[in-house]
């Protein structure tokens, strides 16, 4: 807050610790806790939450690491943003990826 100045409004959920922290700063009157106001901040964490949910399935960190290494290489191989390219280019890239994947699995 020192570097960027004091904000006009701080949007939080209704957790009491936020109010206590804002009291320390002297900004408790700037806190806004409306019902849908925190959606923008909450939805920015969705990819992280998805990964966090996947982590909960593993009992040991070592098995999670083994899975994550394999999954990351395969996911990056297949995951391409469909909205960034035309359908024909997408289908050509997809066919190339599948043929390469089949070649890797056959070996």
Automatic annotation (TrEMBL):
<dbReference type="Pfam" id="PF13610">
    <property type="entry name" value="DDE_Tnp_IS240"/>
</dbReference>
<dbReference type="InterPro" id="IPR032874">
    <property type="entry name" value="DDE_dom"/>
</dbReference>
<protein>
    <submittedName>
        <fullName>DDE domain-containing protein</fullName>
    </submittedName>
</protein>
<feature type="domain" description="DDE">
    <location>
        <begin position="5"/>
        <end position="78"/>
    </location>
</feature>
<dbReference type="InterPro" id="IPR052183">
    <property type="entry name" value="IS_Transposase"/>
</dbReference>
């Amino acid at each position: 807050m020192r570097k960027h100045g004091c904000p006009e409004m701080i949007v939080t959920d209704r957790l009491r610790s936020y109010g206590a922290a804002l009291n320390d700063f002297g900004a408790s009157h700037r806190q806004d806790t409306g019902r849908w106001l925190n959606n923008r901040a909450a939805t920015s964490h969705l990819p992280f939450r998805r990964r966090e949910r996947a982590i909960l399935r593993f009992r040991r960190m070592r098995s999670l690491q083994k899975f994550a290494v394999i999954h990351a290489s395969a996911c990056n191989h297949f995951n391409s943003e469909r909205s960034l390219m035309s359908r024909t280019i997408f289908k050509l890239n997809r066919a190339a990826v599948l043929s390469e994947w089949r070649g890797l699995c056959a070996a």
